[in-house]
Structures are given as structure tokens and as C-alpha cells.
Amino acid sequence: MNTSYFISLITAIFIGGAAGYVGSLMATKKMSLVGDVLSHIALPGIGLGLLYGVNISLGALASLVLGILLIWILSLKTELSMESLVGVVFVLSLAVGFLITPEEELLHSLFGNISAVAMSDAVAAVFISVIVFIAARMIYSKMMLAYVSEDLALASGVKINKYNLIYLFLIAAVVAFGIKVGGTLLTSAMIIVPAAAARNVSRNMRQYSWLSVIVGVASAIAGFAVFPFLAARYGLSVSAIGPVIILASVVFFIVSLVFKNKQ
Amino acid sequence: MDFQDNQNLIENKEEKLLEPVVIAPRHPMSGEGVGLILEVKNLTVSFGEDKVVDNLSFNLKKGENVAIMGPNGAGKTVLLKALLGILPYRGEIKWSESAKISYVPQKILPEKNLPLSVEEFFRMKKAGREQAKEALTSVGLTDERFLKKMVGTISSGQLQRVLVAWGLVGNPNVLLFDEPTAGIDIGGEETIFNLLNKIERERNISIILVTHDMSVVYGFADSVLCLNKKLICYGSPSEALGPDGLKKLYGEGVTFYKHEH
Lengths: 263, 261
Fold this sequence. Notes:
- The complex is a heterodimer of chains A (about 260) and B (about 260).
- Chain A is about 85% helix and about 0% strand.
- By secondary structure, chain A is mostly helical.
- Chain A has one domain (about 5-260): ABC transporter involved in vitamin B12 uptake, BtuC (Orthogonal Bundle), CATH 1.10.3470.10.
- In chain A, helix 4 (about 55-75) packs across helix 9 (about 160-200).
- Chain A is globular and about 55 Å long.
- The relative contact order of chain B is 0.18.
- Chain B has a domain at about 5-100 and about 210-250: 3-Layer(aba) Sandwich (Rossmann fold), CATH 3.40.50.
- In chain B, the strands form 2 sheets. A 6-stranded mixed sheet of chain B has the order 5-6-7-3-8-9, sandwiched between helices.
- Chain B has about 260 residues and is an alpha/beta fold.
- Chain B has 9 helices and 9 strands.
- Chains A and B meet through helix 7, helix 8, helix 9 and helix 10 of A and helix 3 of B.
């Protein structure tokens, strides 16, 4: 196993765990679509990063933060729901992103290119994942209360708007630093699928949040473990590791469904 | 409490009619006189152009139990939320400094598979296992295994009790209930009524509740506030809810018949 393979693996493990954890907070119906399409808002930033030789994670982060602020402010100022606003900003970003991203890089932007992960990327990803995990842990029970009942949360002094914004920024951070692993399309899958699998078999919040992390991490490891065999057999390039990780998480999801039906 | 006791309570209320119209609180504060716990002046809540609560003024005394009544869409829930400070409003809402307010919402509908146990639900209000157990016991849920159940899988009657217990955590002295009888079967309704009385007796707190249930109003409330965007009537139940008061509130042809024995 060479060094680049190893640092890619570390990156995928940490991003997978953090993505699974923040994803478990996406239990809210309202938020699930938001998180699903949020990752695509990174696309214009990736494009600009590639054009001007800036680290694409930073480009993605800038683009996400701008997009989120736009959505958040519009949802406060207008009566429109967050879902429809995210929808509009999403297609806008997609269109702009496709126009400015160099064509030969488009595929990597969408599906990731883990071979492009440098040592500095790995360090940043580990660092960001830990911070995201700690921050998400701090707002976890308040977000969950808001999900159970917004009125109860507000009456208990939870500033729902503030926590929603923090939460969106946490997702943005995971997406921005996970983008080399999974691209914009697959990073959203890394957020959604492990939590969906965990939810099928969890009976309380504790199990649910930890299982989401475990499935996220296990998917990353399984993806890396299986990849060499698939690559040898079907001649896949290294950049296909991202999709293989997602396939692994979907396998976990299917297994969880079997357990759910047995309960 | 059996039916006979209920009847006594209603009769006790009627005796109050003989007294001067000032509503006596159930727990007169000895020495310091009767303090106000809440003052509402010219309260208006609007959604866009639509005034849902229009220029409402009333006061509440310490320890007083108030029922808020009114037809659907009269702004009852909105009033509660304004009192809680979770809706923007114009006018003045002044809680006394000693007021410690808690809220029991109208039904919540957790998804069946929501991964959240009753115990964790209580921990969201910083209530440990013992505190949760105590609160649950005071609403009649004594089985310890109940703490491990998923919030989405308990019956709606049990959920209502859990919400009441949740409201009791932290020992509030004012409890705001939004339709505590909504969504509970008839057997359960009787217990919610008993529960209110029991809580009120044990904890010496003011309860402000939105309700349609006349037996709750007569048996439990010291005063009733009828609302249809504006304040329609306010006073003791028998006084405010005479035939005239009900007509004003719900329109012609609605009367509540009290059974005479």
C-alpha cells in the first residue's frame, strides 16, 4: 500500500464519519432535501478554483457559504419555504458551475477524484471532520427537539434559525472537504445513506447517531478494501473509489432494511 | 376522582356566583395581597394583513386557573404562543419576575420510526433519569420500562401525558396547555381532567389552558377568557359563559345545558 493510497483512505474515513454524523441530523423532512442538493452549490466554486488554480475545497467552501447565506436570508425575508429556495439556488449553481468548470474536470467535480488528495488535503479533512463532529454534537439535541416540535424548542429558548444556519455551515464544511473523495454528487450520498441505514435499525438517538458514524466509516473502509479487486477485474481508474464507497454504503442500507423487516 | 366529586366541584363553582363578581383566586397570597402574574395590554398579533389577535387586554392573578375558549381560528393557540414569546406581537405582555413558565403543546406527531426514546426526550430538557421518572410518575406513568420506549410508538394518550410531564420538569409555576384534551379518547379525557386537578393541587401552579371541554371549564377554571380575535368575555365560568356569553362567542343557538340534580 503506497502513501497516497493511505492518505486517501484516512481522508475518506474521517469525512465518511463526519458526513454520517451530520447526516443523522437530517432526519428532519424539511432538511433532507436541503442537504441533498446543497452539495451541488459547491460546483461554481470548484470551477473557479480549477480556473484560477486555487484549492478546489476552498473554492467549494466559498461558494457553499455564499449560497447558504443567500438561501437563509431569502427564507427569512420572504415567506418562501427553504426547500423551494434551495431548489432555485441549486439549479442556478449547477448551470453556472457547468459553464465555468473546464469540461475535462466536470466528471471529477461530480464524482470525485481521490487520487488528487494531497497530504495537506488529508490534514485539513481530518481537522475539519473533528471540528464538525464536535460542533454537531453540541447542537444535536437542540436540533432534534426542534424536529420533534418547533414550538417546544422555541418555548425552551432554542433559536431554531440560528441552529439551522450553523447546521448548514457544518454540512458545507463536510461537502467542501469531502469533495475530492466523492465529488458533489457522491458527497451528498455520504451524508444521506449512512443515516438512512442507521435509522432503520436504531431505537434511540444514541444508537442512531453512533451507527450513522459507524456506517459512514465502514463504508469508506469497505470501499477501499473492495476497490483493488474491482479495479483488477474491470480496469477501474483510481477516481472510481468514491462511487465504490457509495455502493458500499448502499449495501449497508440494504442490510439494515432486512433487519428492519425482521424487527 | 369519581363523578360525584366532579359534581361537587361544579356546585362549588356555582356557589361563587353568590359572591361579589370579583373572582377570588384559589390560592390567595396571605400577607402580600393578591399579586398579578401576567399583565396583557393591547396585544395584537398579525399574520400579514390579518389580525389574528386584536387589541386584547387582561390580567392574571397568581395561582389563578384560566380557560381560553373560542371557535376554531379564534386565535387561541396564537395567543398562547404570543404569551410564550415565540411569536412577534404588538402591545405589552408582562410576566411577573417570579413567573416560571412552561408549555405543553397541542399534539405532536413524531414519526413511528423516530429514533428517540422517552428518556432522551426528557434529557433534551436537561432532566436526568430520576427527574424524568418523577415527572412521569406524577402523570401516572409509573412503569420504569416506559423510559426506553420510542416516542413515536407510544399511544396518543400516553404521548399527551409525556408532554405534560415534560412541561412539569424544572418546577414551573405557570403551565400553558394547548388543548390538553385534543386527540385523547374519552377514557383518557377523564384522566387529563383529573390530572390537571392533581397537578394543580400538588404543585400550586397557575394553569392557563385552551379547551373546548365545558366540564373542564366548569370543574377546573377560576376564570374563562373567551376569544374570537377580540376579547368577547372574561370572568368566572358561570358568569362569562351564561347563554349571552356563549351566543356572543359561537353565534346564536348554542347553549350549554348544565344538568340540574
